[in-house]
User: Fold this.
Amino acid sequence: MRIAVLIPCYNEEAAISQTVADFKKALPGAIVYVYDNNSKDRTVELARAAGAVVRSEPLQGKGHVVRRMFADIEADIYVMTDGDATYHANSAPAMIQKLIDEHLDMVVGTRLHTDEAGAFRAGHQLGNHLITGTVAWLFGDRFKDMLSGFRVFSRRFAKSFPALSKGFETETELAVHALSLNMPVAEVETPYFARPPGSVSKLNTYRDGWRILKMIIALTKEERPLFFFGTLSALMAAGAVLLMVPVLLTYLETGLVPRFPTAILAASIMILAFLSLASGFILDNVTCGRREIKRMIYLSHPAPGEG
Assistant:
């Protein structure tokens, strides 16, 4: 089977040589692709010297790179990892074998049980738990480390993935894509290491955490519109009722409506609540059609180990 190792990179000269060498050793039959994302250091030179096929993506952001990699590369199995030498390359063969044996579409290498100092900062681990928990509540509880950058994909996953995100929120989009189509997925515990000296994380805890949260909200609107607009409808209806209760009580006592603007406001908000609910029902039908199309594209490719 054709195996492609995909490594998105930005300024990783301190670790890219080791990353490429580790994966070439662990998967000797695979082609290692390094997609450079406007690096200002020697990442491209060192990756090429290590034996990787080097390509570039000028649009800045990991999401843009993932979209380009999945579009360009033709393979049966895709292994995606970061270029910072933090993931355990020797776990890749076992993850691939699990994908093939169980006919899965994605296997995620979880990092949550590492004991190496400095590998997984407490703030990042807390944020990972919160984001993973939110996605589990909204879309289904099937991942423990949704934000891991170490994954193995089937061809049918890669070629049906819409890849609309721009930055680090792409991991969230990958998870929701699998959950929305009820794809067979699994997780494998893998060692996770601290970055080598000179390698600096590109992840901004607060900025990227906010972008991931916005992506979750956007995906909820796109994939679960009835829930999204139904919740808005319920909140607006509750607000309208709270505004209307004092006006209604006064009317029952005196037969008058002294706060006429409040009554108009409450009625207007209630109308908006019904419009929001109607929008949810309409968009839910549209989403079902979109999901059927994505499912047909997904089914146009054979399962791992078949065909």
Notes: The CA atoms of residues 131 and 213 lie 8 Å apart. The mean pLDDT is 90.
